[in-house]
Amino acid sequence: MKVSIPASWMMSLSRSKYVVCSPWEAKPFDLDIFTWQDNPDGYFFNYWVRVFKEFEKSSSLGGLTFYLVSNHDRVDELPSYGDDVVAVIRSDEECWLPPYLNKVRYVFKTYGFKPWCGASPSERSPASVLKCARDWGRWSWRYLLYLSESGFSQRPGQRKMVVPLGYARQTDLPGKPFQSRRYPVGFLGSIENRDYSKFSPKRLVASPKVIARSRMAASLERMAAAAPEAVFYGTTASFTESTMTGAGDRYTEIMADTKIALSPRGSSVETYRFFEAMRQGCVVICDRLPPHWFYAGCPAIEIDDWRDLDAVVSPLLAEPDHLMDLHRRSLSWWDEKLSERAVARLIAKCLEAPGESEKWTP
After folding, report:
1. In Å, how far from its chain's centre is CA 185?
2. What are residue 68's DSSP bridge partners?
3. DSSP state for residue 307 in the 8-state scheme
4. Residue 231 to residue 278: CA distance in whole angstroms
5. Which of 61, 64, 243, 286 has a Cα at 20 to 30 A from 11?
6. What DSSP letter does each residue of 151-175 carry, written as one string?
7. What pLDDT sits at residue 56?
8. pLDDT interval class at 1 (50, 70, 90)
9. Helices 126-149 and 208-226 meet at what angle, rounded to 10?
10. Given strand 29-30, what is the order of strands in its sheet?
């Protein structure tokens, strides 16, 4: 006989409390990590829900309140503060400092705590230089506001850590055996956000995303013309269309059947696609990555100009043993650095010794 366990009982099994703070809700709401499932037209929390479940397994800590914060630039206040409060900020491409940085036990944040503009000025387009100047200008203003609100007496503390983005609307379809994957090279996603208004500056002026992805698209079209069976290339209108519709299932199916996954930058150089491809064991080609701990030494292949894509892909396809090695290393990197279990253990270690955690490299 199947016994149904009430959700309230399941939530009581957690040693800590989990709460969502989002500008799209009238007030914060409790997150039941044992029953939550993402909906196609709602939030994508599955990655972090699974991180929290792994945290419950890997740590004996209890009595904490985790606030999972979306769009933190619009969430200036948390419902509570103190040494029993942990903030997990899952979306902030601007890399702003949260105003409550020194008011809680710890802050875990995607994208980092300051902008990153690329490896060197010679590798930046004029559009990326302008974006870099804009990002640093906004960041500096927010930093001054942060100092002003703290009375210029509290510099950003050490109780903070950059964490991976994880996956967005990716399903749990396992990757196919690498040798039998159908597409040597694949990409499915948006090239530009065609849902911008007609007179939006982002339509009138090319952004770093549009430049990078347009160059990638042109390279893919040349490669497909020479070897149609070797390339999958599909587009969506925007990130929203890719994640908020049934396209998410198709996206996962293609990636699971792809050997080399292309991960060009979006508004940020960091993309969900990078982590989703690693999760599927794809060999990832991407833009230059920020110096976060989870990128250091990773098996991804970084590219400076997507017009050179064919010159990068051809040698890879000509060396199947090397390609297989990169596939295995991608799976290992996901498991050891990026997976829900790995991030949960990182969080546990930081919270167990919050004043010491920045002294070690994960």
Report:
1. 22
2. 20, 88
3. G
4. 19
5. 243
6. TT-----S-EEE-----SS---PPP
7. 96
8. very low
9. 140
10. 29-30, 17-21, 65-69, 82-89, 104-109, 160-162
Give me the residues paired with residue 67 across strands.
19, 87
Q: What is the mean pLDDT of the chain?
A: 87
Instruction: Name the band, by pLDDT with cuts 50, 70 and 90, for residue 201.
Output: low
pLDDT tens readout for residues 342-355: 999 999 999 998 76
Neighbours of 24 (CB within 10 A): 10
Asked if the model's pLDDT at residue 211 lies above 70, the reply is yes
Alpha carbon of 327 to those of 17, 180, 187, 255, 334: distances in Å?
37, 13, 17, 13, 11
Strands (E), 43-133: 65-69, 82-89, 104-109
Across 58-64, average pLDDT:
94
- Find tokens 């109780």 and name the residue: 159
| Structural element, H or E, at residue 135 | helix 126-149
Residue 359 has pLDDT above 60, yes or no: no
b/e for 117-131, b at 16 or more Cβ within 10 A?
bbeeeeebbebbeeb
| d(C-alpha 203, C-alpha 190), whole Å | 14
Residue 188's DSSP bridge partners are: 234
Domains of the chain in sequence order: 7-167+341-359 (no CATH), 178-318 (3.40.50)
For the cut 90, the answer to whether the pLDDT of residue 360 exceeds it is: no
- pLDDT of residue 73 exceeding 80, the answer is no
Q: DSSP for 182-197? A: SEEEEEEEESS-TTS-
φ, ψ of residue 189 to 5 degrees: the values are: 170, -170
